[in-house]
Amino acid sequence: MSRRLAVVGLVVVAVAAAYWFLIRDRTVAPAVHSPRPAALLEAGEDEVVVSADGALVRWFPVPSDPPLPELPAAEPPKGGRLRGPMLEQVRVLAATPEALRPYLERSYYGDTGVDVVLTGGIELRFGDDTQAARKWRAAAAVLADPTITALDYVDLHAPNHPATGGSGHSLPPVP
Q1: Mind listing the pLDDT tens digit for each residue in 50-68?
Q2: Cβ(54)–Cβ(94) under 8 Å?
Q3: Among 70, 82, 90, 104, which residue is least crowded by beta carbons within 10 Å?
Q4: Is the bond into 67 cis (omega within 30 degrees of 0)?
Q5: pTM
Q6: pLDDT band at 40 (very low <50, low <70, confident <90, very high)
């Protein structure tokens, strides 16, 4: 019995040594991951940065250049994370191409779903947050079209066939 116990002990020591010296990762590299701000939640007097995954990041300083698009709310959500329509808005805003970020003013959840308003007043109607990156590419293509000089909205529910309407707002200036 003691011989078996010695053999088991030896096997355990050999496996532990093999793990410790041969298998285990020997490098430790510290890494700090800062959240990517997507929007600014305005709840009464408070302004809180919202990360791309919908988490409220109270310690993150509010960036001013470019300013973050606003999400109006009566009060911050309990639990520190957005849900439902507000989370859909954040997912759409997080997918915004860098070139269009300076033109974002605000987002709201309207009759057509997620709507994003540009600084010139043009409304981008996304519907839901599915295919957000593809819808942004379609929006960028419409806004870059030289034959369009003014419009009120771009409907992006079907990103392969964006629809435009109105002529009340000028396109944002090219930086």
Answers
A1: 888 888 888 877 777 778 8
A2: no
A3: 70
A4: no
A5: 0.75
A6: confident
Query: Residue 68 sits in which domain range?
Result: 37-170
Q: How is residue 175 written in tokens? A: 């930086």
In this predicted model, what pLDDT tens digit does every residue of 99-146 receive, in sequence order?
Answer: 888 888 889 998 989 999 998 889 999 999 999 999 999 999 998 888
Amino acid at 86: M
| Assigned domain for 163 exists | yes
Residue with tokens 């507000």: 86
Alpha-carbon distance of 7 to 51, in angstroms, equals 55
Question: Which among 99, 93, 141, 100 is positioned nearest to 114, based on CA atoms?
Answer: 93
CB 149 within 8 A of CB 171: yes
Q: Which of 40, 63, 60 is nearest to 50 (CA)?
A: 40
Amino acid in the structure at residue 159:
P
Q: How many domains does the chain have?
A: 1
If one counts every other C-beta atom within 10 angstroms of the C-beta of residue 99, the result is 12
DSSP state of 26: -
